Amino acid sequence: MKPILESINVAVDTSLKIESYANENHCASAGWHVHPEYEMVYVKNGSGILRIGSQKKAYSNGVLVFLGGNIPHADFGNRDHVDNLEIVIQFKKEFLEEKLKIFPELGKINALIRKSKQGLVFGPEVHNRLGPDFERFGDLDHQGKLINLLSILNHLSRETSYEPLFDNFALDNFKKDDIKRLEEIFEYVNEHYSGTISVVEISTQLGLTSNSFCRFFKKMTQRTFIDFVNEFRINKALEFFNTNNTLITEVMYQSGFNDPSYFSRQFKKYQGTTPSTYLKRKYGNLLLQDTLL
């Protein structure tokens, strides 16, 4: 089965996307998917089956996985125990392949990064020893999270207790040119979400007609481009709401919407509630007054 291309929304003020899921708020299934970002997943306990590329590997009592970009995979977590925890860390290839490689002191980490393209599953002893470091992410600010990740990468770069799933992984489900086009589209939306998103402009940039662009995007992601853009913008609105107790109208414009009614409908479509209700639940009596319902 051909994997779905997934867009990873990394916040503008950080190099990483880190999500934590407990048993009661389990990670929503993304199905069989692929993305250009690197991904590290720590599952505290319980058993399951890793489906990565052509490989299937059972695990028990949790697992620690590090995947290079563009490796198709299914979800990793499980609900065996009420105290289970899943930490998912994703980072763009530019962060690892361009920024970190300029430091000669990080030679072992850069070697680990290259190995991750084989799909690495670390042994139980490594998983257990680094568990507290992964669980610490929830208490850290952006700077602390970056330092903590570098510390984890440092430890993993010195380990020999891991299993590579592939000698070399080749993404043959998609052509390299198609992957590159998707990455360009994701970057275009990330750079222009607060303003005008022009299908004509991005189509021309990719050397496609508007109709060909829409067909290409639907084929690669199983969704329409406008649906993708709206969800991306709503995720940005959540990012703004969660960073500051900001007026709804300000967030609406910052995230690229111009019509209050349309913004409210899209927010409810993707979040299951209106912007005002979301903010009331989050901030309570501290909520700033606004006119948008």
UniProtKB/TrEMBL annotation:
Residue ranges annotated for the HTH araC/xylS-type domain, each copy included: 183-281
GO molecular function: DNA-binding transcription factor activity; sequence-specific DNA binding
Keywords: DNA-binding, Transcription, Transcription regulation
InterPro entries: Homeodomain-like_sf, HTH_AraC, RmlC-like_jellyroll, RmlC_Cupin_sf, Tscrpt_reg_AraC-type_HTH
A Pfam family annotated for this UniProt entry: HTH_18
Gene3D superfamilies noted in UniProt: Homeodomain-like, Jelly Rolls
Taxonomic superkingdom: Bacteria
Protein name: HTH araC/xylS-type domain-containing protein
Native source species: Flagellimonas olearia
